[in-house]
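Predict structure. Input: DUF2293 domain-containing protein, 286 residues.
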Amino acid sequence: MASANRISRKRAPRKLGGRRRNHPKTFTPPKSPQSILAQARRNSLTSRRSRGGLFGAGSNNKITRSERQVGGRTSKYSKFGLIPRSTEPFEKNCFEKESFATGYVFVPKGDVYVTRNCRANTKESERTVYTVFDKTGKRTLGIRVPSDIYAAVLESAAATAETRANAVKLRDEKDLAHSRQILRTQFPLMPAESLEAILNHAFLKGSGRVGRTATQSDKRKADLAVEAHIRHTHTPYESMLHAGAGREEARNAVWGLVKAIKTAWEGGDSQPMDVLALRNRMVESN
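Output follows.
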């Protein structure tokens, strides 16, 4: 009996809360996201090299300077496919530092007629067009096409330059007349000098301003252009900015006057004398 009690006492579990020994733990600082990404890239490169799939060669390829820099700054010239593969027929993408194909020349972007026709004529001849990227792989610099194609397009561009210029002029005049008609229809009481000022500013070709955007309707473009003109020329908005007010604060302060003048130009309820009195009060308060 005593023997059984001794055995049961030996097998009894230890009570919780007993004194435990403290084992010192080594603190490991957390890794930064950059170091985690760099390690993942290195592991991926090592795996690809072991499979012989990095450059299409065996696993004995040496790690190049470009490969060592994958985890950090992009190398000056990389072969790791940092530019997307083109899905278009007879088109390939390349870096600016890659060697030229035989008989090819570089065509810088900028002249739409030359670039478009070089691309189209090269494809029609069933030859490859190379789209050239800068060293970052984020910006295109131009294209590479056969030299005979480029020479023929330059000759055609020179022969049609005057005709194309006249066509562009007619198209610009048509666009300007269309914009003028929209403003006159929407704001029949707008002064003539204000209408011309808006056309020459907000609707100026190449300005990138609201009148030239393709993401807004004609009515919305006219509204925004007129509001901007009124704000800058018929309210104390500019003087408030010079006095140190923030843009949002100044916009909110003059919005009532902008809306009143705009309504008057539309032929609404606001009378010219009421608008003038409101503007005078704002000028005096500032």
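Residues 91-157 form one domain.
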